[in-house]
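Give me structure tokens for this 262-residue protein.
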Amino acid sequence: MELGLRDKVALVAASSRGLGYAIAHELATEGAAIVLCARGEERLKQAAREIAEATGARVVPVAGDVAKLDDVATIARRALDELGRVDVLVTNSGGPPAGTFESTSPEAWKAAVDVLLTSAVELIRAVLPGMKERRFGRILNVTSITVKQPVENLILSNALRAAVTGMARTLASETAPFGITVNNLLPGYTRTERLTELADATAARGGTVKEFYARLETEIPARRLGEPRELAALAAFLASERAAYITGQSIAVDGGWIRGLF
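Here you go.
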């Protein structure tokens, strides 16, 4: 299927590894030029080389922390200076620490707001004017299954990814007349470093990492964990010209884990 992404420009946040890396790789495979950003410069440059060599795409790595406003401005400016525009924006970040309401400090709440909500808002703010001017844009927010079915011991993710969802649904209505779509990707339990962190946190409270994974696979109707490339395939479609009439949606890639109807 021709997705119409050749010669588009995509900015993918937190893309040196994990889900962000998989999405950037998939978009590059479809012919898009890619701006990668992440905090770790060495791994970021390595990721850029890997994607460029595998796909032949132009890949621009920009080191920065999306939780910091100055870094967001730098990332967006480099994208515009190097590639002229941003057609596809993928907001993404590392997950906040696990914890309950009572175990989570005010400082942890503030940090989570910055990394999950403010980062998405400011990245969108930086590229939206150009999308409106060109009357084309795709905004994809990587959130979580927690926005539809909260997960125990993840108070910060449950609360703030839901905030991103509310922002995105409102923005989708505001930008639809300009040919811009706004959608959310809800990864389920997927083989990433984030899942390893959750396994370790769960084991610290009792049980073992092996038991954690066994329990998850029992809960998932597909009876297995997801692979990053499976979320990336959805991202590529939603970023495409084929998906022009899909906006304001939150779509799970979770092997059937969410039991709700919506």
